[in-house]
Specification:
The chain is mainly alpha-helical. The protein has 46 helices and 2 strands. β1 and β2 form a beta hairpin. The protein starts with a helix and ends with a helix. This is TPR-like protein.
Length: about 1000
Amino acid sequence: MHRQGLQAKQSHAQSMYPDPEASAAQVYSSVTGEQPNNSYDATTYDREDTADSADHDFLRDTGGNFEQDEQEFSDADSDYLDLQNDIAKFKDSVLKFRATQRGQDDASQEGRAEGHPPRRGRGRRGRGVNRSRGNIRGTIRGPNKAAEPTGDIKLRLSMAYAAFMNQKYEEARDVLEEIIRINAETHEAWMLLASIFKELGDTDNTLKAMIIASSLRPKDVSAWLHCVDIALEKSVEDRAGYVRSAHHCYSSAIRANPKSIEARMGKASLHLEEGNTGRAISGFEMVLKLSPHNLEVLRRLAEACIEHGTPEKAKTAYQEGIKYYRECFNNVDPPFGWSDLNVYVELLACSEQYHDAIRELKDTSRWLLGRETEKFWSRTDDDREWDSDDVRRISCADYVVGAFPLSTYGPGMPLELRVKLGLYRLYVGHVEEAMIHFQYLKSFSEANTIPDYADMFREVADALNQAAFHKQALDFYEAIQKVPELAVASACVAMGSCYLRIGVPEKAEACFQTAIQLEEDNFEARVQLAKFYEGLNQQERAFGYVNEAISLKRPPPIRLHRQQTDVDNISSSLEQPTKMSRKPRQRSHVKGHKRSRSAEWKTEEAYRAENLQRHYTTMVVEHDKMKLGDESSSRAWMISASHLIDDFRGCKTFYPWDKYVHFMGYSGSDLVQAQATLDTDLAAMANRISQSLGAEHPDSSKAPATGIPTDYRGMPFSTWLDIFLEYAVCLARSGSFRESYEICEAAKDAIVFYQSREDMFLIHICWCTCALIASDEETCVTVARFFMKDYQFTTDSYRMFGALNRLCQSPTSWYNSGPTQKYMLRQIKAMDFSLTDRSNQGKYFAEKGSYSAQDQHGQAIVNVDMDVSLLMLYGFILYSGTSYAYALNYFYRAYALDSSSSIVNLSIGLAYLHLSLKRQADNRQHIISQGLLFMFRYYNNRKQSERIQERQEAHYNIARAYHMLGLTNLAIAYYILVLSEAEQAGSMLEENVTTDAAYNIQSIYAATGNYTLARAVAEKWLVL
């Protein structure tokens, strides 16, 4: 009954609401005069009437099912009928298109039946009935199977093989090239071509041919690995160029078979070889997932983790591996061995987990020797278990003599692991146990056995020396020295240090001398000999070794350009070589060989002189236009200047290793203390020795040295300095900021400028200029320290520091950074130290003040009073870091020195006002009152000025203070005073805050809703 009622309702509904498809057909007929194609009706469509059943599924998917929707629309719904009409047209066009496609497919099938090869191209995938909506693009298909070579290609291949077998490689290659021209996808042709190149010794082309052949069969993993073997067979010199190809081949092999352990292992090993330890670790971890507990992988992973500095990853993998191998010791090939244990304990030692290394070394060794059941040895604190006899072992109650062979105890542990156990004991302070193990090594100190254990002897000796057991260390050092071929300079230096510690200076001297004989450029031996002879008061010998040490320590001068231009002359006056003329670069490496000035050398020098003369002329001609900003002239001038500067920097006389030593007698200790690029201890030693040898300051009665020239290449050094500085500024303007810094540094390091205080001042001024052009606050702060260091307690040096940071267009990050604050605080402490009574200096100061400035006699310049600028500068640094309470301490110190200063009063007032706005401010009203007090002291002092700009400044600052506090009604009055001062001055103002005041007034008016006044102020003062 219910079903019949439902059917009746549906029949009634269909009579009331006609079929939308039929309605659409009627509309289509009335418009076009044709009968519509009913094949698109998905509800009455018969699949069997269609040439391709896929069309039915396609139209059903795109057309949808309207049976559920037919009762929801009326035949009067014109929009719906229009939509259906458009859908009908779309379906009809799709069917016509698919019919055309089927015709083409049939034609191609007929063509293939007649023997024509199929046309390659990207076809359209079919749409199945049960196609998943999630995989819209269909299933992923691999490459098509390679077509069978045609008869012509097979014939040519047989000809190529025959020629190859007869060693007619050129003939075979010609045939193969013809095959490749016909069909480049012939795999056999590329393989045979690779074999030909290999026979000819052309590894480069062999690799290329093999990679192409492998690309034609990308799923062949062995082919890709064979390509890797070819790429990595090259010698060490050429290996780097083939690493990229090897990476490509490994990646292709992994794509072909993601579970290929050999490919993943090789790729990770290659990353490790290149130093990409992070990628290597990831690769080895992936291999471990494919092959758990693989010992070779564990070893490589440990190597990568140690180099990367993260041994924890490998340690965890090793612990899991040891647990696995202990459970199935006899069923694993290869088994866990001593070398694996060695790697494991080394991982623990890299993390300085020496106690864990000792425990794991003993426990695992016991297991490897078959005594895992003797767990009681883990409860002993010493290493008696590993003694060579039972003297100490029998004292253990649980030990049973003869339960296990003697070879499973001390003699069973490899010597290398025993040495490691001794070293770990030494590191944790168990010296007696360590010495027992070391004595076992010492028993192999015969001359014929030492070469096999030389590295262990050296490692033990260095460890004992570092632990201050110098006498014991000498036993192992001397054992190595018994074998002449094992003697090395570093061991001799270490022996000499040990002899000095135990009070045998004669042998120490002999060791240091031997080290120099073994290694001519040994730096440490010369330093030790210099200290040794200085202690013996043999100053001349000590001075000689200091010179040699400095020669080895100083790096070569920095060069900006790879192509250096050697020039000897820049003007006609330089036809003859000067005293500081540079030696030829092409030097003979044969001792005692002195090259004469041959005709060839003179010709080369003449060419260099002509080249430099041309560059110098260009600089002179283009200089004025360059200064005016002409682009082409600037470029030409910079190119020529770079050649001149390169030539200057190439002269070793200007950058000598003995810079401050050679000039010690002429420029005093200032030059020694300023030589920051050398080791400070070595510099101090050189200073002491030179003074003891009689080096004097410039003011001494002795005549100054005359060996320093005043010109180079015919130009005075002042001209050269101008070229350096102008070139640096040009580089900065062109955006080459780092290069401009390097030029300034090169000028600073040149000895002819270094000894001149005026030149150094100009160089640092130029350096600051380049930093300002670059908006480089860090460099500004760093270079500005020079002025505060060399002109300490000079007010202008602190003002310059503040001005440089003010001019630098960057956020104040380095200005108030931690290092800057500490440096300025040290300056203040040094200032306070000299002004404090001697009785209170030790009470209030932990160390003496650091005085960096010196007078002409080399004496430290000490201040006699306080510097207000220094106190205010440090206060501003704290103020900019929002440390207002701390800044007030130094502002008040400055206030005590100069209470009438406008800037001091303004700074104190603003510090109080900003402090009051902090969230945790105590007694906010009192703090604001204090701030306003100082603000009006500043105001009363400033408004009396005769200059309009200063009066404007006073009005504006008070208005801005009220504005900041939210007292806008009070702020407006002072803003108006700023405007009134501007009306009186007219256009005479140089520094004008009128626009700022007007903008703030109109903002206040607009915020309070008075738009009329806001508009009036804006139209009068803010319209340009």
